[in-house]
Design brief:
single chain; 2 domains; four-stranded parallel sheet; two-stranded parallel ribbon; 6 strands; Cysteine-rich domain-containing protein; oxidoreductase activity; Cys_rich_dom
């Protein structure tokens, strides 16, 4: 995608800090300074939490990765019956899902009674027993072809024995990457992250 002016970067949107009632202003300033320094015009987000959290907090345009796939003609249709687990910020209104819904014609809303994957809203640290029950509830449904569009949900379900979970972005783009189950390891790797890095 680099020839098309698209670069790849990993950083934290600051939502966990915001939810923990920590000073978010410093993170917000850092992000806007970083975008300005790098000449960012549009932020293309794969994470639904980042999208919903940042959409009214940064000084650049925001779009989903699915909108970019659409522009580039990279969206592949998922024709099988797809049981969709909606990420926390998309439980009621689903603007991200609407951007790719036409490519999942046989989707099923099968998890209305499961509120979270167990890692959202600091649930794992504040209510560990409740958080542990969510992956089990998904597993107990014993449904084929489970899909989500949140890497955290996907990884946590896979780590907790949900065998048939897929990330919509990897399937739609034809990559078909296995879920990353190293959530905690990835979080710990940012423990000594330096905000002044270039």
């Amino acid at each position: 995608l680099e020839p098309l002016g698209v670069d790849f970067s990993i950083d934290c949107c600051g939502k966990p800090l915001f939810e923990a009632n920590t000073n978010f202003d410093k993170t917000k300033a850092h992000l806007n300074e970083l975008f300005a320094a790098k000449g960012v015009e549009t932020l293309i987000l794969a994470c639904p939490n980042c999208y919903h959290f940042l959409k009214d907090k940064v000084d650049v345009k925001i779009k989903t990765i699915y909108e970019k796939f659409e522009e580039l003609g990279l969206n592949h249709e998922i024709t099988e019956e797809a049981h969709i687990f909606y990420p926390c910020p998309e439980r009621i209104h689903k603007p991200i899902f609407e951007t790719f819904k036409k490519y999942v014609p046989n989707f099923k809303d099968s998890f209305k009674d499961v509120n979270c994957c167990g890692l959202g809203g600091l649930a794992r640290s504040s209510e560990p027993q409740i958080a542990a029950g969510y992956p089990q509830a998904v597993k107990d449904k014993n449904l084929p072809n489970l899909y989500t569009y949140c890497a955290t949900c996907c990884g946590n379900f896979a780590k907790n024995g949900v065998q048939n979970i897929k990330h919509i972005a990897t399937v739609m783009s034809g990559v078909n990457e296995a879920p990353n189950t190293a959530y905690l390891k990835n979080v710990l790797s940012l423990k000594f992250y330096k905000r002044n890095r270039k």
